């Protein structure tokens, strides 16, 4: 933790210095969206002011805009470990991309084919497949997560697979429990059954190095605004597979890759911000002693940030565990911090999560309550979806002092609310 350059990191994020009527802000709403470095905002602005044109022409701004788009695809290829920029599809957000890809994949399916979903996923990786199944007469099977390990277990998935399974959709990390699934092992089991594997890495991407080649999956999606970038989504698809797919698109638009999956005019200025966000990771890796390619420097950034975040997560979990009647919904074993991201959700017996969050928001501690689109998780756990949980989400720009203030606030709020009952 001492080796992480926290002050230098915080200096890159202007939002962290903002105050409201003299009161500091503590951003622990990061699972819903992180703040951005100055370089990201500057890249977006610079693109709008100097290279603002559509693609496909021969004059200066359109040529420059194409360079912005090409750079963004190359940066994302480095970020996820893709073999080719042609495997990177950039779009509005993860959910929109998943709806689009689900319909495209639906063209390869027939009534009676089976899809496996998990009870651990964000709704953005559930509803598109449920609605596809409804449209096409597919069979949906759900694999629950284990409430002891907080992960999807390989043996449980294995039992649901059959010769009719066409696709397994699963998440890398939960946006409610924080648990990380063993995606490589789960993918290998699904592939042995001949199924495609679609991975939602939205919550994992800010907290760990993605290597799509090593995972062995067919698709992986994430969102730039969860890893210090602009509001947009990215899909990686294995090249031989996406090259064979026929997407829904305009008749006269490009049939090239990845263009045939990127509908309409792209968000060119946000692509500039995407490249800047990925370069932020590379710069962090270089500051931590990393060298070599951008991919290698990104890997170094995650090496140091994971260690830093784990220390904050340990501090948070230990502090919350002191509160009687408080239940953390996820991994709490300090020996298993490497199996979770720093998103910690909890409930308190007899107190509505929103009541706690409203009080803490009033102290400029930013966090969320509710189901947070983890619809299947709250139902499996028997948590009323209209209440959900209190969710605290750490990013590597947070500090131990902020976690300390947050814990003091939780303790005080719970004690106060209990007295008022």
From TrEMBL:
Keywords attached to this entry: Pyridoxal phosphate
Pfam families, sorted: Aminotran_5
Domain Aminotransferase class V: 26-403
SUPFAM superfamilies per record: PLP-dependent transferases (SSF53383)
Family annotation (InterPro entries): Aminotrans_V_dom, Cys_dSase-rel, PyrdxlP-dep_Trfase, PyrdxlP-dep_Trfase_major, PyrdxlP-dep_Trfase_small
Protein name: Cysteine desulfurase-like protein
Organism: Mesorhizobium album
